[in-house]
Design a protein that fits this description.
Distance between the termini: 44 Å
Strand content: 5-15%
CATH topology of the largest domain: NADH Oxidase
Radius of gyration: 20 Å
CATH class of the largest domain: Alpha Beta
Number of helices: 10
Order of helices and strands: HHEHHEHHEHEHHH
Number of strands: 4
Helix content: 40-55%
CATH superfamily of the largest domain: NADH Oxidase
Structural class: alpha+beta
CATH architecture of the largest domain: 3-Layer(aba) Sandwich
Pfam family, one: Nitroreductase
Organism: Paenibacillus phyllosphaerae
GO molecular function: FMN reductase (NADPH) activity
Keywords: Flavoprotein, FMN, NADP, Oxidoreductase
Number of domains: 2
Largest sheet: 4 strands, antiparallel
Family: Belongs to the flavin oxidoreductase frp family.
Shape: globular
Length: 250
């Protein structure tokens, strides 16, 4: 164990924030830390927009499923997969269209994710709390219009950053045996690992503090997965949206 590992393993999603602005120098260091993340072939196919305007945060909160933490946080960072800048770089030399496929789409998405996670760890090291906002993809066309995103750019997720105004319990993770494999993928023992994790999460959900379903005696992880992925709310609109943004997923 060292200070970095302790910080990473102490991560908690924060959904309530104090009304304290983030100094510009802190925000700059958070973003520079994001830029230090790994990026395939140095393409850096992402961008980030900082949202501080209260009315714009209110609108984004509404578009993301009425998530109040967006309104309360001093800044929302919207992380974008951005292959448009690659198109612009190419056109410094030749007036040609960027050759697209699923791999290019993944590169932009992965780059944005790696940079955001670096930024999240940097923010937590400075004493801030964070929470990712996947709901930014609930209404991507409206978000695109609000943020004036050009073609070949799409919002991957938001990231609220601010001084925590709550102390939620650490959420337990799956046993390492359920995610770690050696040499080949194996499902041997997975059902038992899930059952054991369900018992842990049942206690967590029933007793946790800091928001959510505290006191719920029936919630377990596997049931949460059933609710999450059998609800008809899995953003099936994204393929058409991405096509409209100029991405060719072939």
């Amino acid at each position: 164990m060292n200070e970095t590992i302790t910080l990473i393993k102490g991560h908690r999603s924060i959904r309530k924030y104090k009304d304290t602005p983030i100094p510009d120098e802190h925000l700059k260091e958070i973003l520079l830390s994001g830029q230090a993340a790994s990026t395939s072939s140095n393409i850096q196919a992402y961008s980030v927009i900082a949202i501080k305007d209260p009315e714009k945060k209110r609108k984004l909160a509404e578009l993301s499923g009425n998530q109040q933490q967006i309104v309360e946080s001093p800044v929302l960072l919207v992380w974008l997969a951005d292959v448009r800048k690659i198109q612009n770089a190419i056109r410094q030399h030749e007036d040609v269209e960027l050759e697209q496929n699923v791999e290019l789409f993944l590169l932009g998405t992965i780059d944005a994710t790696l940079a955001a996670q670096n930024a999240a760890i940097a923010a937590e090291s400075l004493g801030y709390g964070i929470v990712y906002i996947g709901g930014i993809r609930n209404n991507p066309q409206e978000v695109t219009e609000l943020l004036e995103l050009p073609p070949l750019v799409y919002p991957v997720f938001g990231l609220c950053v601010g001084i925590p105004d709550q102390e939620p319990d650490l959420r337990p993770r799956l046993p390492l045996a359920a995610v770690y494999h050696e040499e080949v993928y194996s499902e041997a023992g997975l059902a038992d690992e899930i059952a054991a994790y369900d018992a842990i999460t049942k206690h967590y959900y029933a007793t946790r503090k800091g928001g959510g379903r505290g006191g719920d005696q029936e919630t377990v992880w596997s049931r949460e997965m059933l609710r999450r992925f059998n609800s008809g709310r899995n953003r099936g609109h994204l393929r058409d949206y991405l096509s409209g943004q100029g991405f060719k997923l072939k």
